[in-house]
Amino acid sequence: MTREELIARARAAALKAHAPYSGFHVGCAVESVNGEVVTGANMENACYRLGVCAEQSALTAAQHAFGLAQVARIVVAGGPLVEGAIAGADTVAPCGGCRQAIYEAAALSGRDVEVVCAAATGDAVTVSTIRELLPSAFGPDALG
Length: 144
Ligand code: THU
What we know:
Elements: H1 3-14, E1 24-32, E2 37-41, H2 54-65, E3 71-82, E4 85-86, H3 96-109, E5 114-119, E6 125-129, H4 130-133
Parallel strand pairs: 3-5
Antiparallel strand pairs: 1-2, 1-3, 3-4, 5-6
Bound molecules: tetrahydrodeoxyuridine.
């Protein structure tokens, strides 16, 4: 799938977010080494601290669809919901916890997973790898 198609999948997933408390809708698309794609969105809760990020939602789907060790690329996109549409020209970066979750998949595969951060609208995109986003990471190796 092209990067643009994957961003479109992440943006579409953001429309399925359950984010009534923050009003910030995030979608995530995870692509496997074989080109399979799964998506997820953030899922907030009335007990605020129980909210789940889009990346963790999508990684859980990836775990079941093809396995974390097959994860090759992750796209995150989203922004505030404004009049029924997801707005915002700024890219959405994975939070620290999500970087750690993405790192787990990277460590399992031995692959430096590509992370694409996109805005809800426009062409703003940043492309990096999880090792760039989370240097000196704590991972499974540390546990022996
Ligand atoms: N959020 C994500 O889904 N992923 C991130 O990496 C950053 C933040 C969600 C969590 C919460 O539902 C909303 O965005 C506002 O923080």
